[in-house]
Amino acid sequence: MIYTCTLNPSVDYVVHVKEFDLGGLNRTSFDTKHPGGKGINVSRVLHRLGLESTALGYTGGFTGQYIKDILEQEGTKTAFVEVNEDTRINIKLKADEETEINGQGPTLTEENLQELYQQFSSLEEGDFVVLAGSIPSSAPKDIYVTLTKLAREKGARVVVDTSGKDLLDIVKEGPFFIKPNHHELGELFDVSIQTAEEAVPYARKLMDMGAENVIVSMAEQGSLLVTKDNVYRANVPKGELKNSVGAGDSLVAGFLASYVKDGDFAKALQVGAATGSATAFSIELCTKDHMESLLPQIHVTGMDE
Ligand SMILES: Nc1ncnc2c1ncn2[C@@H]1O[C@H](COP(=O)(O)OP(=O)(O)OP(=O)(O)O)[C@@H](O)[C@H]1O
Ligand SMILES: O=P(O)(O)OC[C@@]1(O)O[C@H](CO)[C@@H](O)[C@@H]1O
């Protein structure tokens, strides 16, 4: 079974304005809302690719109810812990540039935390758990370390997509893969990473510390996957950028969907890259048809270290 865990889900309120007037009254040319949060995006894309998953994490209030309703209507199972405050609303402003305003999220109580830990103690050998997104300020800073430990004790494989130096402690617990983007990877080591070649030694450092595999996403520069034996590089297809929000989550979902079926790293990177770009070229998250139409343009090549 695949589980995703989003500690801080969101309703993403996407507003398009022709020209953004800071300090003035702006009216949207198009607006939409949908369930958000990194693990939730992974679950929604997995579903579109034909894979079942259960979405875990915390939801609360009318916004939390909205997320559960949509996921269940779409056919994704949910087992969220209910919290007292409302799930946050994140604003995604699309004008000449993309601007994001992400909320803080509700307060988690000790009881809420214990409930999630309890759920993790029911994981089984062969399960995958995707831990993705920011950690609410009321949760322990090392909660991903705790959750990774709990999952590993049960024999589950863990995928982590989060930013910040906590990742350096999480990797010690042996996640199956982590997916920083190149800026996040650089921040971990206080360096600036601009190219795939520069990224590889830092991905290797994370593997020396305990991560089994590392995917580095590089937006329009594509992505790379570092495994014990190989380094693979994937390009991006031709297309018009419409929305980069959720592209990274889509890469994770596509990679996982392919890997659990075939166990083939190069193929999984190809599918992941196509899924990431399909979302970048869509108003919302991608469809399976869109992903498949881009696949022939994605070339995965081996890279020397
Ligand atoms: N402008 C783009 N053109 C084509 N493909 C893109 C573009 N942006 C992203 N992608 C694809 O999606 C993948 C993930 O994107 P990115 O590196 O921006 O992830 P991220 O920083 O985790 O994004 P987010 O947090 O917004 O989901 C890239 O590796 C690439 O394959
Ligand atoms: O505040 P976090 O948890 O870091 O990121 C949350 C978020 O920006 O990430 C997703 C895209 O990856 C969006 O759906 C959501 O709004």
Automatic annotation (TrEMBL):
Pathway: Carbohydrate metabolism; D-tagatose 6-phosphate degradation; D-glyceraldehyde 3-phosphate and glycerone phosphate from D-tagatose 6-phosphate: step 1/2. It comes from the Bacteria. Pfam families: PfkB. GO terms for molecular function: 1-phosphofructokinase activity; ATP binding; tagatose-6-phosphate kinase activity. The keyword Flavoprotein does not apply. One of its GO terms (biological process) is small molecule metabolic process. Its EC number is 2.7.1.144. GO terms for cellular component: cytosol. It catalyses: D-tagatofuranose 6-phosphate + ATP = D-tagatofuranose 1,6-bisphosphate + ADP + H(+); beta-D-fructose 1-phosphate + ATP = beta-D-fructose 1,6-bisphosphate + ADP + H(+). Keywords: ATP-binding, Kinase, Lactose metabolism, Nucleotide-binding, Transferase. It is an enzyme of class 2 (transferase). The keyword Oxidoreductase does not apply. Catalyzes the ATP-dependent phosphorylation of fructose-l-phosphate to fructose-l,6-bisphosphate. Belongs to the carbohydrate kinase pfkB family. Belongs to the carbohydrate kinase PfkB family. LacC subfamily. PANTHER family: 1-PHOSPHOFRUCTOKINASE (PTHR46566:SF1), 1-PHOSPHOFRUCTOKINASE-RELATED (PTHR46566). This is Tagatose-6-phosphate kinase. It comes from Priestia filamentosa.
